[in-house]
Each structure stands twice: as C-alpha cells, then as structure tokens.
Amino acid sequence: MADANPSVAESKPKLTAVPPEPGPAQASEKERRGVSPALFWIVGALLVLSLGGFSVQLQRAGALEERVAGLTGQVEGLQVQLAAANTRIQTYDLHRSLVADTVDRVNQELSLLTELVNSDPLEPNRVVPPIVE
Asked: Tens digits of per-residue pLDDT, 14-69?
C-alpha cells in the first residue's frame, strides 16, 4: 500500500530539527553561572577589608574610652584639689582681714599712747584717753 500511493509520501514535507532560539526562559551559560569569579573575589576582598577596618576602629574606640575614664578620674581628683585650695584661700583671706583689723587697732592704740607721752602731765584740763582692750 505504501507503493500504491507514492504521491502522498512525496507531498509531505520532510521534518528537520531546528535548534530553538534562546528566549527568556532559556538563559545563556554565562547568565546561568551567576556572578563572575573576579567580581566575587573583589567583593569578598572588600568585605574582608571593611571587617578589618571595623575591628581596628573598635580597638581605637576602646582605647579612647579607657583614656576618657582615666582623664575623668584625673579631673575628679583635680576638682577635689581645687576645692581644697579655694578653702585655704578663703581661710587665708579671713586671717589677712583679721590681721589687718588687729594692725589698725594697734595703730590706734599707738597713736593714743603717742599723744599721752607727748602731753604735759601737769596740765589741769588734760583728758586721758581710754585704753581699748
């Protein structure tokens, strides 16, 4: 029967395999691989460097915190010393004013004594100045 109808077999087109066109569903080999190795290593190196810089900054921040704590202790000590010095200055001022008052009183007594010594003891209207204690 195949020989009986040869025109039908010749009239059918021959099918040949055609390679499919790459579409959105079919990615190329480069796209399927993902990130290129060079870019991967560059990003990895940058990540390692940034982590190293971060650890260095943490160490510096820790050292600065220790220094601040030490300086804070020194400031507190200096504030105590300053308060003590201010108290001593106030005490010295008080003593100085007491000494100045005493010197003034002694000067007054000295001037009264000088008047008494220089006055005539036989003068009838002589006023004897009071002695201040």
From this structure: 767 777 665 555 555 555 566 688 888 999 999 999 999 999 999 999 999 999 99
Vertex 25 angle, CA 24 and 26, to 5°: 95
The answer to whether 20 and 26 have CB atoms below 8 angstroms apart is yes
- 3 state DSSP class of 20: coil
For 12, 59, 74, 101, 120, the CA distances from 117, given in Å and listed in that order, are 163, 85, 63, 24, 8
DSSP state of 89: H
pTM of the model: 0.45
* Residue 33 CA: distances (Å) to CA of 20, 21, 41, 74, 91: 20, 20, 15, 62, 87
DSSP 36: -
Asked if residue 12 has pLDDT above 90, the reply is no
Location of structure tokens 């000494």: 99
- pLDDT score recorded for residue 34: 67
